Amino acid sequence: MAETGRQRWTERVEQWKQSGLSARECASQAGLNAGTLWHWKCRRVEVELSNGHRLRVPAGLEPVDMRCGFDRLALLARERVGHDPPSGALFVFRGKRATRLKVLWFDRHGYRLL
Fold first, then answer.
1. Residue 62 sits in the same domain as residue 40
2. Among residues 9, 17, 51, 113, which one has the fewest Cβ atoms lying within 10 Å of its Cβ?
3. How many CA atoms lie within 13 A of 55 on its CB side?
């Protein structure tokens, strides 16, 4: 059920990107909330690397306690962002005042935290 909802929102965000409309215009045409559309766009950040590979960077939109270690951040990635850390994505978390970031990723040796 969650995958179909995620797929549906992914399609909506792609339609919005291709339409050239603002978030508010696209959301009103589809009968959606513009804030929800922005939320899903922020969850779908992808970066293309110089070698041609695409890297997913799901961003946690809610602030987290910067004292959290990699185990707690991995749990938050599963609960809040909806992705599994060993999937190869980078997970970006921000502090309460938005002055600090933590980046979590998983490689063949285990979790890494920046």
1. no
2. 51
3. 16
